[in-house]
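User: two proteins, same treatment. go.

Assistant:
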Amino acid sequence: MGKFFFWILKLFGWKIDSHTPVGIDKAVVVVGPHTSNWDFVIGKIAFAHYGVNAKFLIKKDLFFFPLGFILKAMGGVPVDRKKNNNITEQAVNYFKTNEKCFMVFTPEGTRGYQPNWKKGFYYIAQSADVPIYIAYIDYKRKTGGFHSLFIPTGNVDADIKYIKNILSEYTGKVPENGIRKEETM
């Protein structure tokens, strides 16, 4: 099925970057810029092409019949967002209990312009002791994929600036909602 969808992407002029996540079984994946719901569709096809079973966190309340089966099949991991639960801890436990795990985050937290990223992805990577894969989607060049592997240094603000700097080179479907170069300085 993945090959069929990959063919569809090619039909519309899209290319998937050949840089693949070889030798890594667990990582937090940061994807940007995130400016459209189409990012999810294109991303799922790209992950299928790479043979990566990408996971994403989604509130537990949505895992009811039959939607729950669909969300799990798509890579959804239920998390309890009630106020006394620690989502970071839930995600770290998921990493600990699975031999392979690529957990995907769009740190903008919205498809609109957002200069202040949510830092949960970073703390999850640190606590789970896994690297961060930087992945991108570029509507201008109609390409997307894995850019590079990044090991958190512990300096969250500097590391996020570094990641933003890389992702600011790419254009989202709605360019004005993407990462701006001045955020990386």
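Protein 2:
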Amino acid sequence: MKAVSSVSSPMSRFTVVLAVMLSCFPVGLAAQDADTVSVSLPRSYRMRMVGIGSVNLLDTYLSPENYKGTEVRFVSLASKPSRWKALNQRIVHQGDVSVSHNRADNNDELAGFYNFQYSLTHDWQLTEALKAWAGGGLDATLGFVYNTRNSNNPAQAKASLNLAPVAGMAYTFNVKGKPWVVRYEATAPLVGLMFSPNYGQSYYEIFNRGNYDHNVVPTTVVATPSLRQLLTLDLPLFGRRFVVGYLGDYQQAKVNKLKYHNYTHAIVLGVAIWK
């Protein structure tokens, strides 16, 4: 099976965003208090964020057209020690809805997804200010795509369960004696299972007539070359810790002769709680 087209375009956009955010480093470092010791990102913290951005959606079961529009997303991320002292628990909840339009702007697709991730990670304190972590765990997604113009097959259900590695880094620097944190994390599915109708198969055949046709598909990174990443700046303001950043979510699949992609570029805003 051939791999889905690469995510070079989303990655090039991410590179620009990354360069802009990293350009704040010299400013932050110049403002550091020489007598203040950097405070590393703690093992226990929570982040709650709302994101809004662009979405590019393709599902050939519904339409051969690309649909482009706007997505709104909620992200909850928590890290805390596990029962194994050397490992941390990483728990992520994400929910998003989007409305997108075809090139002729005469048809819409509505989509909604919920994603849950549970991982165990190990931390490495590389320097006083620089921390890295890596690990892996489960990544589960449920959702739907609805085409407002289709009559026979207007909707497509989405469900997948994957084993996914995760890795990240956090750099802490001081501005006027207060710790600021630049944090980057990425995760990608490695192997898993995905639900999909087969090419030309209707949901009536699957659920009403019980005609199974390879609808639970084993997948690998070859069939689902996908990536989620989050780059944030965490800063103290008005007695709280605020978060601003970029979320890139590039989901792709090619199974049962059907192609699917859902590319999201979003700006996120939120709060962080250190424990």
